[in-house]
Amino acid sequence: MAVAEASYDFVIVGAGSAGCVLAARLSADGKHRVLLIEAGPRDRNPWIHVPIGYAKLFNDRRVNWSYNSEPEPHLNGRRIFNPRGKVLGGSSSINGLVYIRGQREDFDAWREAGNPGWGYDDLLPYFKRAENQTRGPDQLHGTLGPLTVSDPSEPHPLCDAFIAGAEEAGFPRNGDFNGPSQEGAGYYQFTLRGRFRASTAKTYLKPALRRANLEVATEAHVTRILCEGGRAVGVEYRQGGVLHAARARAEVIVSAGAINTPQILQLSGIGPGALLQRLGVTPVLVHEGVGRSYQDHLQVRIVLKCTGAVTLNDEVASLRRKAMMGLRYLLFGKGSLTIGAGYAGGFFRTPEAADARPDMQCHFLLFSVNKMGERLHPFSAFSASSCQLRPESRGEVMAASPDPLAPPAIRANFLAADKDKRVHVAGLRLLRRILAAPSMRAYVKEEYEPGAAVQSDEALLAYCRERGSTVYHPTSTCRMGTDALAVVDHRLKLRGLEALRVVDASVMPSVVSGNTNAATIAIAEKASELVLAERR
Q1: Is 141 in the active site?
Q2: SS3 100
Q3: Distance (Å, rounded) from C-alpha 147 to C-alpha 131?
């Protein structure tokens, strides 16, 4: 097969939350020629830009990798669905829009583990640099960045009742989960610009596309990284039936996400020795850490039947109300079409918390389903999920075939650690306390799932095994650190190979305490400075 070749300074693999940031920042001064490669299409699907559209894209293979895990041994052997963005903007184009940075201690722990420059105070300038906070600037928030962060378009009585119920249960009200303290209940902020989603494709990449030194290749699947003499020199990718080779004079930067990045490295000969042998891939660098240390957040939902027709289930079930929902969105930019995956929620300390930090997160949802991505229940109901913030369980992502188009084998290993089991049971009990508070009683007809009969620790844990699923925060498969399994150093350079950097959620030494998109963007902001500093 003939190979079409071209040369660039930087070749970026993956146009997701991190890749779009890198492409915009590395091409800004016009000095460097940049190629950004994305396996999916351009972000032209209209449901990408309507906030509630994430529900429409949950199973859409045109813009979603739609992965399934291997049978999870501690979740009754179930395969867990893992949606990941396959489109410009990556998962920032199909996620639930919730903007959460994580806790100060998350990042300080990264620094203390041997990663200088990655503590909270080090990363705060990059969070602020990225942010266009509609509330205005302060010591913790910025307004000059591309990424618009805004409040919900309007309050909702169910959300107000949940927040009041949390206060009645003894938890504080919190108006800013990214402020001085994360603990408490309140409304989430979203990556939302007006009535439209603020993905990194829209906020970072789109303004940069006019630059002559930036090229974007979509529907282009990277097959391998090209290496010569201990150095990454480019990538090979397929596009429209043609095999291309993009040479990188300075660096190859892999930003394909915590699931795709390790697979690409492994199929390029960079990974565990036994895996490379099994796949029949010629080793370039045997590294046992590539694909290991995988972490994700497990969520378990409580579903409650509602006494009044105030849920999204009710709106969707009525043609008249659906029409009104669309009209309110078009005319005023308000209503259910503007909401993210969690309208309200909170961060709480269970009795298992070892310190003053919240160890459980709740996403409060104005709808209910049997399984995410399926039709809403035909009755009035809403949901609240319990999510352990800092799981101890670790899994792996390994290429399952030498075919680069085949999905990798994903094993999150949820609930492998005893601590994780205890926190999930405690989280469900805490959430039930809030949902039983006086302010909630006017809205709760009955607990539909798991149901009143499920009360003992053993029964609650069995429910977690039966119904728990990912909350879509995969991280740490190419983690930063200094030990033998650490894949990149504190400059995000791959250990043992020159001119190859990894910049995405896979480099997190451990998953942050909350949604991962904001932290991934901050990582990319910092990485762009690290890269450019070496070119001056």
Answers
A1: no
A2: coil
A3: 5
